[in-house]
Amino acid sequence: MQRYFAKNEEDTFFIQEDDYHHIVRVMRMDIDDEIYCVNSLQQAARCRIEKISENEVIAKVVQWLEGEIELPISVSIVSGLPKGDKLEWIIQKGTELGAFKFIPFIAARSVVKWDEKKGGKKLVRWNKIAKEAAEQSHRTMIPEVSSPISIKELIKLSEGYNVKLIAYEEEAREGESSVLTKSLESMTKGQSILAVFGPEGGLTESEVALLKEHGFVTCGLGPRILRTETAPLYLLSAVSYHFELME
């Protein structure tokens, strides 16, 4: 059954714009068809379409749904701007795996150069990918994708996080996996991780040193060297295993 994020008042949801088009034009739904809806409080419900107007679908709640879908800790993924559509892959698959937020990072070795004037369309697309992936995976929230930031902005942003990790391939080469394990074991429900991943060429030694000066710790992600688009998915899977499957 299709899922949509929409505004609601009590037991009524109001669906407009792209989602309206999807329901009416793509899915060709009609009165009495059922959908899932999620409101801004992350409450999900099974709903019945009650009315379809020229620009709005109105759906009534049939049943509010219980159960926890989101990861018990929030994981924000900081990705050094990669080439091509790799960031789109990270956003889509990372959303399916439960990421809380995506923060593109203008790293020293990022080949892609961010243009603020032209970047608006990309940002809209990235957030649309996150929304569609959240709907597909039946999330109760849509991860935010922010505009790319500098390392100075990243350091400032990191002040609000409980655990700050750098996925560093030098640690993987040395077989260092205990940092990630110990970090997860130290955390409790409601806390947050900020995890930094370099672009294709990796982070520079000076970038790593600067981040470590501000409370970040380096960690390996298993004995193999992972691509920039694979590493965030490894970490999210490890978090899910530790906090969800192990429970």
From TrEMBL:
Domain Ribosomal RNA small subunit methyltransferase E methyltransferase, residue spans: 70-239
Name the GO cellular-component terms: cytoplasm
What's the superkingdom here?
Bacteria
Main location (coarse class): cytoplasm
Record keywords: Protease included? no
Q: Which UniProt keywords apply?
A: Cytoplasm, Methyltransferase, rRNA processing, S-adenosyl-L-methionine, Transferase
Q: What is its EC number?
A: 2.1.1.193
BP-aspect Gene Ontology terms: rRNA base methylation
Coiled-coil residues are: none
Catalysis performed (reactions): uridine(1498) in 16S rRNA + S-adenosyl-L-methionine = N(3)-methyluridine(1498) in 16S rRNA + S-adenosyl-L-homocysteine + H(+)
Localization recorded for this chain is: Cytoplasm
- GO molecular function list: rRNA (uridine-N3-)-methyltransferase activity
Q: Record keywords: Signal included?
A: no
Listed InterPro entries: Alpha/beta_knot_MTases, PUA-like_sf, RsmE, RsmE_MTase_dom, RsmE_PUA-like, tRNA_m1G_MTases_N
TM spans (from-to): none
Q: Which residues form the Ribosomal RNA small subunit methyltransferase E PUA-like domain?
A: 15-61
Q: What is the stated purpose of this protein?
A: Specifically methylates the N3 position of the uracil ring of uridine 1498 (m3U1498) in 16S rRNA. Acts on the fully assembled 30S ribosomal subunit.
Q: What is this protein called in UniProt? A: Ribosomal RNA small subunit methyltransferase E
